[in-house]
Amino acid sequence: MLDAVERGLLQALQIDGRIAFSRLGALLGVSDQTVARRYARLRAEEGVRVFGAVWPEAVGNQLWMVRVRCTPDAVAGLARALARQPETSWVQIASGGAEILCMAQVPADAMSAESAVLSRLPRTPRVVGVSAHCVLHTFFGGTESPLTKNGPLTAAQCAELAPPRGELPGEPVELSDVDGALLAVLARDGRAGFRSLAEATGWSQTSVRRRLAELRAGGVLYFDVDVRPALLGLRATAGLWLTVAPGELTAAGEALARHSEVSFAAATTGVSNLYASVQCRDSAALYRYLTGSVAGLPGLVSVETAPSMELVKLATPVVG
Predict the structure, then answer these.
(1) Largest CB tally within 10 Å, which of 186, 206, 210, 296?
(2) Rounded to the nearest 5°, which phi and psi values hold at 93?
(3) Can you give the pTM of this predicted structure?
């Protein structure tokens, strides 16, 4: 289990993935060497990493939730194959091994034709059903996660750490090849130093700093933290497919965003119109959550719960 310093470290990195360790050490009451050592351990032993990601809308991409039902003997292999696709994230085996859930980013103007996931899955052997649900509006996710809601930092400390919030551009941004090189390095390591970024782009460190600030302020680039729920003591995770009365959809989505158990919530197309990914301490806590906070959502008609059995791939950004 994580101690208070490590939980504070992860919460701070979720707020600003490139925060200086010296500033973070002062906030947590430890040395910057201690912060750096703790982060190095979490990264090497627990797979924690900070990465840079591009907002889908900023570059003309669309986010989809994909559910795949296939024969039991094919689930593990297909999940691994989906995890290798650059457009996928959060690939997980769910519902007792009966299905795979994942998210996919594809160009908004040519969704199925250019998507290896959406175009090929229906023709894949041993796949017995595929449903794709377009994300229409995100209530919680991206720069926010359970870390931002459940960590030890006070509201004042969080506000102090938060970088200026970038506004999404009105039209999709055209990224240059050099931008792509910059973003590719940040996708692998969001805390890569300016020297490494300069070497990858051929720019000076001053130019890299300026472009990085422009991409963040322009609503193109953000930073996220990959951390497995079990590291936070959350061992019961599930996807919830909720049907809500249309007039209550916004209120229900905003309520979900405030729940400490929710890591992602969005309005979607499909039979159900609201999706949430939830993380609880155990199955008993999940039951209490479903019969308490979820049952009290405004306009709720029905809920389908898909427990996650294995998380095959966490968040992996799409560059360009």
Answers:
(1) 186
(2) -90, 130
(3) 0.89
Per-residue pLDDT at 168: 81
The arithmetic mean of pLDDT across residues 270-291, rounded, is 97
Nearest 5°: the CA angle 146, 2, 23 is: 75
Residue listed under structure tokens 């959809």: 249
Query: Which CATH class name applies to 230-307?
Result: alpha beta
Q: What is the largest CA-CA distance in the chain?
A: 56
Strands 274-280 and 300-313, sheet pairing: unpaired
**Dihedral angle computed from the Cα positions of residues 68, 73, 75 and 79, in that order, rounded to the nearest 10 degrees:** -130
Please determine, for residue 319, whether its predicted confidence score (pLDDT) is greater than 50: no
| pLDDT tens digits, one per residue of 176-212 | 999 999 999 999 999 999 999 999 999 999 999 999 9
**What count of other Cβ atoms lies within 10 Å of the Cβ of residue 258?**
12
Write down the domain spans for the chain: 230-307
Say if residue 116's pLDDT is above 80. Answer: no
Question: Which residues lie closer than 8 Å to 82 by C-beta, 6 or more apart?
Answer: 68, 88, 91, 100, 102, 117, 312, 313
The CB density around residue 199, as the number of other CB atoms within 10 Å, is: 15
